[in-house]
Amino acid sequence: MGVAGPPGPVMDRDEVDRALARLGAEHEAIETSLLALQDHAGRRLLEGAELTGATRDRWAAAEQAITLLWSYFDAYAAALRTAREVRSRRKWPNRDDLAQLTDVLRGEAVTVAGNAAPSPSPSINGPAKLSEHFTLAALVERMNDLYASSLDMVVAADAVWSALPARIDLLSAELGRTRRLAHSVGVRPGEHPAGDDLERITSSLTRLREQVVSDPLTYWQKAQGSSAPGGGRPDTTAYDRQARALDEVRREIEAVLTVRQDAEARLARLRDVLSRADRTLAEARSARGEVLAKIAASEVPAVSGPPIALQEQLAAAADYRRHGQWHRLSPLLESLEAKAEDELLRARESLTAVTAPLAVRAELRGRLDAYKAKVSRLGFAEDPFLVERYDAARRMLWSAPCDLRVAGEAVLRYQRAAAEVLSTGGPERAAPTDRRGES
Asked: CA neighbours within 13 Å on the CB side: how many for 176?
């Protein structure tokens, strides 16, 4: 080691003292970091865990790296002690002392046994080296690299273990409460889709927790572009997916619970709506008979009977309520409510269509009486021509069956005659027979 002489110029006393002070501070910092790594909670957990997958492989490499780190540190500390011993021989070191110090502080004076970190496979260039030689600066750089990679692995595993298992346990507890609530309202696997979803979420969470505990690095997302140890965050994608699925199931269970609370009121409303639809259809059937008797030459649509299928479904819904089958009652009620409103609307439309001819007759009667009142108010109530036209229209509108087309033409003739009389200020006496022949 001393045959070739010290590397470069021999250091003077001040350079040696400054280098020793810097190396001493560096030694304390490295020792503090290594002890912190040794006591890190993540490292202790890794030592006692039954690991699998990528975490098992990386921890095996990290354990070798940590062992090698301590070997390097011991060699570094030994070289520093040697330098301090040489420097402490005399207050003013001679040239041989300075040459030896220069060799220790700057040369490849640190020897580390080659078996400190066994290689997983033999080198293709020949047998493994029996020992390696480093300068103190190169040794510190090597230790920094090993420390950074080891700490990165330990911090990543610890971060995943600190974040995910606790969250999974909380979600599992919420899952348990939801399962009990679901069971109370009849939502069970094989009977309701939400029950099947709960079984799937339970299996997924159990499997996720096992994987997180045994292979945490699978759930670590390294930060892009970050070289700092532990740069990244736990990957919660799988957990978030199960949390969302449980939220969806919980909302469905809450909807079933709401059905249990409001079932009787909703069933009562359904009975009322269907009863109104039935009464409206009955009224439409009665009105149809009246129209056929009183209105001639009119197309009157047929009226359907009461909705038997809806009544059967309503009876089934009441049966579900009596037996507490809320998970079956919930979708049935929603379907029935929509169908019942449609049925009531259809019944009202049927009544409107059936009574349309009666409405037309009523409108014609009203129009005829309105014009007669206007004529009477202006003093022409006794006009023979108007009286004749009015009587003709009235006979048609108050006779049965009433021909709406003919009656409408009669009302129009009376309306035109009244307008003529009102516009001229009096009846035209010259040709009454001509006016009577206008029809």
From this structure: 7
Distance of alpha carbon 394 from alpha carbon 399, whole angstroms = 8
Rounded CA-CA distance 272/420 in Å is 55
Predicted pLDDT of residue 69: 92
CA distance 109 to 131: 12
Q: For residues 284 and 292, give the distance between their C-alpha atoms in angstroms, rounded to a whole number.
A: 12
Q: Helical H runs in 10-130?
A: 13-39, 41-48, 53-87, 95-106
Task: Using alpha carbons, list the distances in angstroms from residue 311 to 192, 326, 329, 346.
Answer: 25, 19, 15, 16
Residues of the chain with pLDDT under 70: 1-8, 114-130, 225-227, 297-298, 425-439
In angstroms, the CA 384 to CA 398 distance is 21
Determine the pLDDT at residue 215.
94
> What is the residue-averaged pLDDT of the chain?
83
Euclidean distance between CA atoms 401 and 363, whole angstroms:
17
Q: Is 212 helix (H, G, I), strand (E, B) or coil?
A: helix
Which residue has 């021509």 as its token pair?
Answer: 385
Q: What's residue 394's pLDDT?
A: 87
Q: Give DSSP secondary structure letters for 275-339.
A: HHHHHHHHHHHHHHHHHHHHEES----------HHHHHHHHHHHHHHHTT-HHHHHHHHHHHHHH
Q: Cβ neighbours of residue 181 under 8 Å, at least 6 residues apart? A: 253, 257
For residues 367 and 411, the answer to whether their CB atoms sit within 8 Å is yes
Asked if residues 40 and 66 have their Cβ atoms less than 8 Å apart, the reply is: no
